Amino acid sequence: MAFNLAQSAAAAASLAPGTPRCAPAPAPASVSVRKAGSAPSGSLRLQRQACCEPSVAPARPVACRAAAAAAVAERASRRSAGVPVFVMMPLDTVKKCGTALNRRKAVQASLAALKSAGVEGVMVDVWWGIAESDGPGRYNFAGYMELMEMARKTGLKVQAVMSFHQCGGNVGDSVTIPLPRWVLEEMEKDRDLCYTDQWGRRNCEYVSLGCDAMPVLKGRTPVECYTDFMRAFRDHFADYLGNTIVEIQVGMGPAGELRYPSYPESNGTWRFPGIGAFQCNDRYMLSSLKAAAAAAGKPEWGHGGPTDAGSYNNWPEDTIFFRRENGGWSTEYGDFFLSWYSRMLLEHGDRVLTGATSVFSTSPVEISVKVAGIHWHYGTRSHAPELTAGYYNTRHRDGYLPIASLLARHGAVLNFTCVEMRDHEQPRDAQCMPEALVRQVGAAARAAGVGLAGENALPRYDGTAHDQVVATAAERAAEDRMVAFTYLRMGADLFHPDNWHRFAAFVRRMSGAGSCREAAEREARGVAQSTGSLVREAAVALRS
User: Which keywords are on file for this protein (predicted)?
Assistant: First the structure.
């Protein structure tokens, strides 16, 4: 989030790394299928020490190359029509018991209004803490089934987020949805299943990636739990995949993003624009660090992360490790540690994506992964907040190309935030540069050959934010456009008459590949008039 911010091993083993993902068979004209490019010819090497090279999992199995080629051609032709807009559903769309929707009347009216405005579909969190709360392997998707059927009848597509994290403790989290009870029970027994900083503070938003391969959750590994959950979802919604559910976004960490929980807002631990803190002091992470240090011939480096990197709310120049001149980040030790820390994150992403692609290898859906837009202190040499989050990105090193290359091997889309932000809107003293960051991530996606999708990091209803999104996502050559944009978020404020009119114009401009504002405004006035009763009904119901 940005602020002001082992089931398929045998089949996969026969494929060389870099084998392109199998694209689904071409969908009917009414189905939106987004582009996720295959890996480019020639391997793109990850920039880290040889001793820290991760094991590379085979790419997504290929079932039908002819179908893949046809689907790629169809997606390319669709891009000329603009950038499809999705809208995020409320975090508590489904009741915590999992059996039904919250505010069903509001959801129904909202979906109808969104469809009338030209929105492509909606995004919804499928919470692990709701759907598998009752016990391991006991899945309850009843409330989500109700939503999928409602979306189908309305003619909207769905991006389903496999949310393996806790809701609550991050910006915009208006409700609390914890991890499944049986997972929390195991975390109580073994506190090292939680991410841990150098002061022993535990963070239980997401199970520590250090124990990915350990059978610590009632006899299953965390990755097995994630894979089993996705398989259950696939089987339960088989009739909706491809025609209604068009994308599976795979949760990878806190806020669903591929990162460490380095800047938690809960209990006032972190405040923008602090640099955050490394999360590598649970015993599973420390065991890996110790082994890496021994392999590098520096066993003294294996006792923990840097102790001179400040705390959550420091700024880079407050610290010895992140400071501009002679900072520890630029030393041999700093490179070793940051390479190991980022490698662990990449390997986690690789393991979870391997599970996801094994489950959905024959399903006509896209796979995507969300990467955080950490734009504060981006103008400094060390890029400290990105480093503590696990992105080894500095003034002299590209930390996003390795991530994009990982996604390319699995044929996944890179979903990035803070697309609505402009540099001059942010505090200058914190050297925030969201526009430059978005450009860098876009370049990495193009180099790796993956589709780039976007989100706004914070709720914005003004024309200035809309203009920025249109310029960044849509007003480009077809090959450089974003493959989709997801708007945060559906709620009563969106359906305020003025906001709704501006939003309808925004959707028209996006779907028309940056069509002129005047024409979009004229069309939006008609949409606002025709949907007035629906919008009022939705706004009232959402406030109740």
Answer: Carbohydrate metabolism, Glycosidase, Hydrolase, Polysaccharide degradation
Dist. CA 438–CA 371, nearest whole Å = 11
pLDDT of residue 482: 97
Side-chain half-sphere exposure of 187, counting CA atoms within 13 A = 20
Q: pLDDT at position 478, please?
A: 86
- pLDDT of 479 reads 86
Please give the Cα distance from 96 to 94 (Å, whole number). 6
Beta strand pairing status for 452-455 and 245-250? Answer: unpaired
Active-site residue 132, yes or no? no
Q: What pLDDT shows up at residue 14?
A: 32
Q: Which residues of the chain carry a pLDDT beneath 50?
A: 1-58, 60-76
CATH, residue 130: 3.20.20.80
Out of 120, 132, 205, 257, pick the active-site residue.
257
The two tokens of residue 178 are: 């914890």
Domain containing 483 equals 66-543
Query: What pLDDT sits at residue 295?
Result: 98
Amino acid identity of 194? C
Residues contributing to the annotated binding site? 125, 165, 173, 370, 375, 417, 456-457, 489
45 within a domain of the structure (yes/no): no
Q: Which residue has the tokens 């290898």?
A: 361
Beta strands, E only, 296-384: 366-371
Q: Which residues pair with 217 in a beta bridge?
A: 220
Total domain count for the chain?
1
pLDDT value for 448: 98
Per residue in 133-168, pLDDT tens? Answer: 999 999 999 999 999 999 999 999 999 999 999 998
User: What are 146's two structure tokens?
Assistant: 């109700």
C-alpha to C-alpha distance for 293 and 305, rounded to whole angstroms: 11
Q: Which of 235-270 are b and which e, b meaning 16 or more Cβ less than 10 Å from the residue's Cβ?
A: ebbeebbbebbbbbbbbbbbbbbbbbbbbbbbeebb
C-alpha 508/C-alpha 425 separation (Å) is: 25
The beta-strand segments (E) located in 193-293 are: 194-196, 202-207, 245-250
> Would 205 be classed as within a structural domain?
yes
What pLDDT score was predicted for residue 267?
A: 83
Domain assignment of residue 274, yes or no: yes
- pTM across the whole model: 0.87
Examine the residue annotation and report whether 257 is marked as an active-site residue of this protein.
Answer: yes
**Among the listed residues 277, 442, 466, the one whose alpha carbon sits nearest the alpha carbon of residue 373:** 442
Of 120, 347, 386, 455, which residue is the catalytic one? 455
Is 11 part of a structural domain of the chain? Answer: no
Q: 86: which residues sit within 8 A by CB, 6+ positions away? A: 119, 120, 121, 122, 123, 157, 159, 484, 485, 486, 487
CA distance 529 to 526: 5
Q: What is the pLDDT of residue 515?
A: 63
